[in-house]
User: Which sequence fits this backbone?
């Protein structure tokens, strides 16, 4: 039995981090909102992102731009890493100008990237040998909830890591699942979620275009299905993008190419078959190969429509 | 644009069918509950089922057993057919002792089986040539809601068919989606739902056994995922069967072998690719082939577990 608990906040950001110095590495759509939530909770936030545009966004709420991860993390007891994958996280920690050596002795590195459990365990092991703590803390909820300090965080790690990270987690999250005392456990929960989420996006895309092929009123299909046994969180959330023909990337196709790839690698390494995840990955790969890798993941529906010469809303035939 | 409306009842069964004679053909777990709901609403219910055990259940609430579909439907203006598929429906209508000739001139045949749209259209066409009405009316909600008169009915057909069927529909359903004025439209909506439902059961089964392979606490996985973006109606509804090791068939594996087969046939006939439905169908076929065709559809999880030598709750290794 893994120890577990849910900590729900009342939603109002307080002064959990008053005066605390926190570094945020990675100021994309998620990281910038998390940095802003930390600042709102009273933290002194230093940040780094290789994209120059991030500097202005950080300054807008009083954050302090740094020239490298090490400079942002220098002497800090809390470092939040909001990058895309395990390789970037490794670079943030152990690359040139990395955080591992620079952060305070006994400080905690809160790692938010989605990655294979074994990668989280390996990074944690290296960091702990340097006398610092690692919290495996993948996030979900999207950029809007990141900006509101209302993310869901799946976390596992040593009790001291949780203790040290608590004020920052409270500032950034509405719900914290405490999923175990070893890094890698939270990563595994996140991958189970991503397996389902990826399959459901592909299935929603297949179903709505199948409905189009059958000549059905797609708005009516959405209304009926979203109240029926065929519903999924992803169907309900993503199909409106298809109905509006709006593929502005809230979450890009490339994210699920990556995450379903991790699921496939994990499963293969344990000789475990995942044919549903495999079929979904192929659909995301086809969509990326057709030029839509950076578009919203509901673009899988556009791929089906292109293949079958169907005109979804907003699509030229 | 297909005309559509939702009619929600207040939930309390009234006397919608007071004194009306209604025949119900097919008294399985769904049909018997629907017959009981009709009787509760004041209908005089005659019923037929080839299984002798159904007779006693029908008599328990004052229903009148008949020896054949024709005998049950003789002279009736409303006949409800709650059989498994298109072939059985065709037999109920046009087979020896079928309802088509026996029912009243201008009466309505409410067809609840899940079937391909073209089959619904063909059956409707034959019946209309005999001066009788056909309502394409697939149902969902399970046996408990059938018994409560609280089903969801997806329906399409001529306005007169709806008008004649209205009291019976009100007695049996909590929600009626009126999806068009031609038989086959409701069938197509139902197949879109079944595509998603089938994929989601297979995905839920894959994900929970993948989580088991990763050594995660499955009750915790259920708790986290059912509140996360990876959730689906089916994950939330079926995974408790897995956690309890209870495969008593609420809905059998064979149902999705059938329904995903219909989806595949429909899609192929329109040259439309459905790889997600295809992968799911293979998982249901493997589960059926492994001897679990008549067990609950969450048995797909047992198939994954057997293949990977995992012990889910209630399973001998």
Assistant:
């Amino acid at each position: 039995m893994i120890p577990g608990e849910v900590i729900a906040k009342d939603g109002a950001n307080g002064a959990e981090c008053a005066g605390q110095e926190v570094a945020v590495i990675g100021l994309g759509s998620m990281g910038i909102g998390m940095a802003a939530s930390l600042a709102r909770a009273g933290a002194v936030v230093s940040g780094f992102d290789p994209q120059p545009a991030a500097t202005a966004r950080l300054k807008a709420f009083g954050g302090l731009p740094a020239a490298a991860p090490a400079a942002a993390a220098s002497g800090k007891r809390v470092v939040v890493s909001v990058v895309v994958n395990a390789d970037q996280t490794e670079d943030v920690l152990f690359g040139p100008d990395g955080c591992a050596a620079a952060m305070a002795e006994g400080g905690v590195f809160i790692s938010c990237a989605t990655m294979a459990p074994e990668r989280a365990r390996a990074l944690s092991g290296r960091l702990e040998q340097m006398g610092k703590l690692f919290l495996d803390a993948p996030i979900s909820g999207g950029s809007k909830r990141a900006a509101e300090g209302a993310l869901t965080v799946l976390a596992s790690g040593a009790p001291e890591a949780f203790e040290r990270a608590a004020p920052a987690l409270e500032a950034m999250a509405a719900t914290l699942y405490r999923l175990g005392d070893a890094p890698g456990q939270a990563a595994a929960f996140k991958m189970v979620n991503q397996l389902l989420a990826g399959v459901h996006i592909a299935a929603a895309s297949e179903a709505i275009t199948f409905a189009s092929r059958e000549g059905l009123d797609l708005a009516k299909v959405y209304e009926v299905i979203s109240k029926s046994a065929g519903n999924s969180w992803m169907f309900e959330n993503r199909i409106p993008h298809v109905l509006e023909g709006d593929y502005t990337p809230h979450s890009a196709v490339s994210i699920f190419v990556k995450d379903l790839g991790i699921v496939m690698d994990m499963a293969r390494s344990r000789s475990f078959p995942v044919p549903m995840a495999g079929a979904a990955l192929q659909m995301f790969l086809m969509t990326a190969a057709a030029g839509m890798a950076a578009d919203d993941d509901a673009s899988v529906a556009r791929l089906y429509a292109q293949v079958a010469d169907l005109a979804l809303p907003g699509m030229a035939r």
Summary: Chain B touches chain A through 70 residues (CB under 8 Å).
